Amino acid sequence: DAKARGRGCYQLYRKELTEYVHGRLLLDADLRKAIINHEFELHYQPVIDLGTNQVASAEALIRWNHPQRGRVAPDEFIPYAQESALILPIGNWVINEACRQLAQWKAQGFNINMSINISARQFMQLDLVQQFEQTLEKYALRGEQITLEITEQMFLENTEHNLKQICELKNRGIKISLDDFGIGYSSLSYILRFAPQYLKIDRSFVSLIGTGKEHDEMVNAIIGLNKIIPMHIVGEGIEEEHQRYFLYSRGCDFGQGYFFSRPLPATQFLQFLQTRATTESQPS
Ligand code: C2E
Ligand code: MG
Ligand code: MG
Ligand code: MG
After folding, report:
1. Residues 6 or more apart from 174 whose CB is under 8 A from it?
2. Cα separation of 223 and 218, whole Å?
């Protein structure tokens, strides 16, 4: 009886494992094709200066237009790409495309910066710094116009190597932003050593604003980190006015979220910039 059940479980396990492996092989093959067939696209979400209400920068967020499955969200393929090293060619494409787009918006008269999400694995590339140098030169951009969004994952493995890369990128003016802060493994000593210029409060904390004194105090405490380490605080996932107001009044410098705008295709992002520029210049 127990033996039969055991075997049943084993068979079930075999079946799931086979499906799992098969699924990953499909994903792997499809991702390789996606690069060749230009199935990736970047959407851009505005980052708003909460003090002036102006668009400070755009965060580039990858989208995959799969020929059969339609739009695939990054959470469905970026983790796999990170494990399989496919993140390297995908990440290189993102860096080039985001810089190309930024140069175009600059040429159209919009003085904004670009934030690019970078995986820990990309920092293992020995020529990452060189790649940025070449791309900046190709599009006549300055390092100061680029911010790299990293996660706490960067602290855990190859810490010394990552620190060295970050130091070299900073020497070229490129800024560092610590993404999804509060849900990972940060310790203040790591933040001190990496010294990011921006810290993004994870949206799970922003969504808790106004739901309890302890939640509000927690967000307050995160913002207060800028008194210990000089950095700008960015609130992620702002969906409601009261969240924006809370963050702004507690000293959070920048905000991002559906309250301002969802991530937009490049043409719609340009319209967003144009509309805001017009509104801003009219007397109120
Ligand atoms: P992230 O960098 O933390 O990006 C923020 C995510 O929150 C985005 O999801 C964005 O669409 C979503 N978001 C923004 N505002 C709101 C809001 O008000 N409410 C809600 N519910 N969500 C909001 P997305 O685009 O699906 O990206 C998910 C994650 O995938 C990103 O998190 C980032 O870690 C990763 N990712 C995206 N593009 C790239 C890329 O080019 N390279 C790498 N390495 N990772 C990327
Ligand atoms: Mg990000
Ligand atoms: Mg984030
Ligand atoms: Mg995230």
Report:
1. 132, 143, 144, 146, 147, 148
2. 9
Q: Does residue 202 come out as left (phi exceeding 0), alpha (psi in the -120 to 50 range) or beta? A: beta
Nearest to 225 by CA among 203, 254, 252: 252
Contact 91, 98 (CB under 8 A): no
pLDDT tens digits for range 171-226: 999 999 999 998 887 778 889 999 999 999 999 999 999 999 999 999 999 999 99
Protein residue with least CA distance to atom 37, ligand 1: 61
Q: Give residue 42's identity as a one-letter amino acid code.
A: L
Q: Is 258 in the pocket of ligand 1 (CB under 6 A)?
A: yes
Residues 6+ apart with CB under 8 A from 42: 60, 61, 62, 63, 94, 97, 98, 101, 266
Determine if ligand 1 sits within 6 Å of the CB of residue 149: yes
pLDDT of residue 280: 61
